[in-house]
Specification:
Chain lengths: 257, 300
């Protein structure tokens, strides 16, 4: 397959990276047709055993290549919504389809393989302290059973993409909060998933670092990845100019498209 | 081929990583497996040795017939030889027996010892061999009725005692091994569980990025098996060392002890079986422990 030669600029502070060195395979190289539905929530409710209600008959359709923010105050269920999408939680009622699969029906190896097509960025980073940046990122591919050659091929371009190639051998505790979050992003995207879910990726960061993280996610989106970012910061979401869905009292409300 | 190498490399790395997390708990796990397998191996080896001893006794159809004092073996030999179930009769004179005893007891001055005991205290003995083991009890009964005979000793009595000893030992060792095996499994399970808890972040991330359940649990199973194998190897070293030391200690010119020493030697089949049994026992303990430890992990 012939690859395009266009170049992208991630951030004024980071280097320009040729596309062919960044995202090795689909879907980032070629944006797929934008009309395909990648996420569908139908009357989804989530009620915990203690009676707390996170979602009540929520509906949402997202197309491939979309980038949305999900906002809401703390405790409204933003993280739960993402967990439902990657199958860590099961809905009390309703259906959730992601990449054409009904998520709560998936178990065992099917669930594992489904998750390989989703990149998750955690608010608390979830980095492994005794592994270097490169090892943390490569760990995903190792856990998926990828070959060493492929791991090496993907690792450096991904670290370059998040501007951390020079810190490949550093340990997480030697990095700032923003850098740790970028490692978390690198880990989420190194397998080039078509869907990236970021749970409060800017929650612990200052404005400069938060903006940098969002730019990285926007760049991913330009390669065709569908991005969902949860945040309690309406202002930050508003600055990006991307559509915002507000989670309020268990319902999802589109604010801007 | 590359895929297999990748998997092997992953397994080695993750297993090593788990062992590093284990620290001293690794040693606790290995040492309990070692003690358990050591006792198991020792009782198995003892049981083989007792079997060999019993088999050896079983092949002996010989009855020792001790005569009354002042009765010569030569006077009775023809009478005994005439019994239909007797295959062979041999006389051991009291002088011959006395010399043999003095030699075995390493008495420096035989004449002095004889003088102290006011002469040779032994009696003449007939070594009677029967045609078949079944005929031995009847033959003994008939020999005992002879007026020249004081008493008879035949191997069935010793055999019965050995069998009772073996049965007793089996029960004691079985109980001990059961308790220790359960302890070993509990310790290895706890060790693996603690390692899993220490690595819960990694396990969670592995699950979330799409590692299959098998891919996650195999390093733990490898760790459990490694604990078991290490315990098996250590117990084998201990058992072999102990056997060699006992054999060296018992090596003597005394006939009975020399006979015992010979019975301590395992056959080549047993020498090959013992390591195999210990290693598979260790592997089994490791496998069961890994299964139990992982069952407690909530992997979806």
């Amino acid at each position: 397959m012939k690859t395009s030669r266009r170049r992208i600029v991630i951030n004024p502070q980071t280097r320009s990276i040729p596309l062919e060195n960044v995202a090795p395979t689909r879907p980032f190289r070629q944006a797929p047709p934008p009309k395909e539905i990648i996420i569908r929530l139908q009357d989804v409710s989530k009620i915990y055993p203690d009676g707390s209600r996170c979602l009540i008959g929520a509906n949402l359709n997202l197309k491939r290549g979309d980038f949305i923010f999900i906002t809401g105050t703390s405790g409204t269920g933003k993280s739960t919504l993402l967990k439902l999408l990657y199958g860590e939680e099961t809905p009390s009622s309703g259906q959730i389809y992601v990449n054409g699969s009904e998520v709560h029906e998936l178990k065992g190896d099917h669930l594992a393989k489904f998750r390989r097509r989703i990149g998750v960025v955690f608010q608390d980073y979830k980095l492994i302290p005794n592994r270097t940046v490169a090892e943390n990122v490569a760990f995903v591919l190792q856990a998926q059973g990828r070959r060493q050659q492929e791991i090496e091929r993907r690792l450096l371009p991904t670290l370059k993409m998040v501007g951390l190639a020079h810190k490949a051998d550093a340990f997480p505790d030697q990095l700032s909060g923003g850098e740790q979050q970028r490692v978390s992003i690198a880990r989420a995207i190194v397998g080039t998933p078509p869907l990236v879910l970021a749970d409060e990726p800017t929650g612990n960061l200052d404005l400069e670092n938060a903006t940098q993280i969002l730019r990285t996610l926007e760049n991913l989106n330009t390669y065709g990845a569908t991005i969902i970012v949860t945040t309690h910061d309406h202002h930050l979401a508003g600055l990006s100019g991307k559509p915002i869905v507000e989670l309020r009292q268990g319902q999802l409300y589109w604010q801007k498209r | 081929m590359l895929q297999i190498l990748t998997k092997l490399r992953y397994l080695c790395r993750e297993t090593l990583s788990g062992l590093q997390r284990g620290g001293w708990m690794n040693w606790a796990a290995i040492s309990t497996v070692t003690v358990s397998l050591f006792l198991f191996g020792l009782s198995l080896q003892t049981s083989w040795q007792l079997d060999a001893l019993l088999a050896h006794f079983g092949s002996q159809l010989e009855i020792s017939v001790y005569l009354q004092p002042d009765i010569s073996g030569q006077d009775v030999i023809d009478q005994v030889q005439a019994f239909p179930t007797v295959q062979e009769v041999r006389v051991v004179s009291k002088e011959e027996a006395w010399q043999s005893l003095l030699y075995e007891l390493r008495v420096a001055d035989p004449d002095y010892a004889t003088q102290q005991l006011e002469g040779n205290p032994l009696v003449d003995e007939l070594k009677v061999t029967a045609y078949s083991p079944q005929s031995v009890p009847n033959l003994v009964e008939r020999l005992t009725t002879l007026p020249q005979v004081d008493y008879c000793v035949y191997i069935n009595e010793a055999r019965e005692q050995f069998e009772q000893l073996q049965a007793g030992l089996s029960w004691v060792s079985l109980s001990l091994i059961s308790i220790l095996s359960i302890t070993a499994i509990a310790v290895v399970t706890t060790t693996l569980h603690l390692i899993a808890v220490a690595r819960r972040n990694e396990l969670e991330i592995m699950q979330l990025v799409g590692a299959t359940k098998v891919w996650i649990i195999i390093p733990f199973i490898c760790q459990g098996i490694l604990f078991g194998l290490a315990g098996g190897i250590l117990s084998l070293i201990l058992i072999t060392t102990l056997r060699t030391l006992i054999a060296q200690f018992l090596f003597t010119e005394q006939e009975f002890l020399r006979f015992l020493t010979e019975q301590l030697t395992l056959t080549s089949l047993q020498m090959s079986l013992l390591p195999l049994i210990l290693l598979s026992g260790g592997g089994g303990i490791g496998l069961i422990s890994s299964y139990l430890a992982l069952r407690r992990l909530a992997l979806r």
